[in-house]
């Protein structure tokens, strides 16, 4: 990469060795692959994904690797990627989720066209881990059958300098750090927009921490530090409206 990247995508990996080739293939399909950087963050994973990712960092100058020998929470890992990001716009993507080939391009074009936008998300389709034959497919007929989410947690993009206004992710969380982040963004009156296209697939898996752990201690922690937990009201209202329309008329929201 000879120029400053337009967007930095943080990808945290832990016990995901079997997903590396899938994720590398996915990011290579981004329409602005050569204008973006992809920061894989591996913190003390027993699977040693760093050893599998390292050859790709040598092949592609815009694929980077950040590692620690000690285990960090997901939100601490995202902060490591945020700090390392070279672009003015930052986002994240989970290893088992999927970015539409146009996702990063549409995010960048939206946020570059209006510098007042501080946070951004897209319409998100929910897929189940039990569909291996179709996983990560953005086939239009398939997307029409998927549930559309109402929250920005699975995929968020933001200005790198947003940390100066509201801080970074709170690494003490293990489950709801994304909700805390968006709650603080709402309290700080940040401007958030939804791109009204299905550009991301979120994978629902029984093994996820959010499915196995009690959230009440983290909710108490949020209350103790004065955070009113809520997804950004403006973005949530927009999401709720357009997912209702999507159920009846999905085609305008799909990118072929």
UniProtKB/TrEMBL annotation:
Residue intervals of the Glycosyltransferase 2-like domain: 8-154
InterPro entries per UniProt: Glyco_trans_2-like, Glycosyltransf_2, Nucleotide-diphossugar_trans
One Pfam short name: Glycos_transf_2
Name used for this protein in its record: Glycosyltransferase
């Amino acid at each position: 990469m000879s120029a400053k990247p337009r967007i930095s995508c943080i990808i945290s990996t832990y016990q995901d060795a079997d997903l590396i080739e899938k994720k590398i293939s996915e990011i290579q399909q981004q329409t602005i692959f050569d204008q973006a950087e992809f920061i894989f963050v591996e913190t003390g994973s027993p699977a040693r994904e760093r050893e599998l990712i390292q050859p790709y960092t040598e092949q592609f100058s815009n694929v980077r690797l950040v590692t620690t020998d000690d285990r960090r929470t997901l939100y601490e890992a995202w902060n490591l990627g945020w700090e390392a990001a070279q672009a003015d716009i930052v986002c994240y993507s989970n290893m088992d989720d999927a970015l539409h080939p146009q996702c990063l391009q549409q995010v960048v074009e939206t946020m570059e066209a209006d510098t007042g936008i501080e946070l951004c998300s897209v319409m998100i389709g929910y897929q189940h881990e039990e569909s291996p034959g179709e996983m990560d497919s953005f086939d239009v007929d398939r997307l029409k059958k998927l549930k559309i989410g109402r929250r920005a947690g699975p995929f968020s993009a933001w200005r790198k300098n947003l940390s100066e206004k509201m801080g970074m992710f709170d690494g003490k969380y293990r489950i709801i750090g994304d909700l805390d982040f968006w709650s603080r963004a709402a309290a700080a009156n940040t401007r958030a927009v939804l791109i009204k296209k299905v550009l991301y697939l979120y994978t629902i898996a029984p093994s996820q921490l959010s499915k196995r752990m009690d959230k009440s201690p983290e909710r108490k922690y949020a209350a103790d530090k004065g955070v009113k937990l809520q997804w950004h009201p403006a973005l949530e209202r927009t999401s709720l409206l357009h997912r209702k329309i999507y159920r009846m008329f999905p085609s305008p929201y799909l990118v072929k």
